[in-house]
Specification:
four-stranded mixed β-sheet; Immunoglobulin-like; 8 strands; 16% helix; 146 residues; alpha+beta
Length: 146
């Protein structure tokens, strides 16, 4: 009985190698999610954002010029499950709003000229108890200023 040829061995080995890497390739390409802050006001502001999943929090700060955008890159921990969380938004040291979300790789928040915030919030009612010091958001999806 004649064994496999060199070409057959190489073909089998490369197919096996590609199959092994196929499951890992997507994980290598994905990263944590970003929060994009749009400042529609006519002044530069410092935005402090706290991601709150009801247990852990993560804080980030970005200064955004008037009529511009800033980013907190890799701010939201990567997940293959759309976990619920809150974003607490502070502008120039003053609390402005809490918004409700499910994990996505990009969340957009816009600060308007009247001092309010709009965001691409989830329409699904989520159950997250905010960390101490933050208000519970209203049950609807509109942002409320306390």
């Amino acid at each position: 009985m004649v064994g496999p040829t060199r070409r057959q061995l190489l073909c089998t080995a490369s197919t096996f190698g590609m199959g092994t890497l196929a499951g890992c390739g997507q994980a290598l390409l994905e990263s944590d999610g970003d929060v994009v802050i749009g400042n529609w006001d006519d002044a530069t502001h410092e935005f402090a954002v706290t991601m709150d999943d009801g247990g852990d929090t993560k804080e980030g700060t970005v200064t955004v010029e008037a009529d511009s955008r800033g980013e907190l890159t890799d701010f939201l921990p990567q997940s293959d499950w759309p976990y619920p969380f809150l974003l607490h938004i502070t502008v120039d040291g003053e609390y402005v709003a809490t918004t409700k979300h499910r994990w996505q790789n990009r969340i957009e928040v816009v600060y308007l000229t009247d001092g309010s915030v709009i965001a691409d919030e989830t329409e699904i009612d989520i159950e997250v108890t905010p960390s101490e010091g933050y208000p519970t958001p209203s049950p609807d999806t509109t942002t409320k200023t306390p």
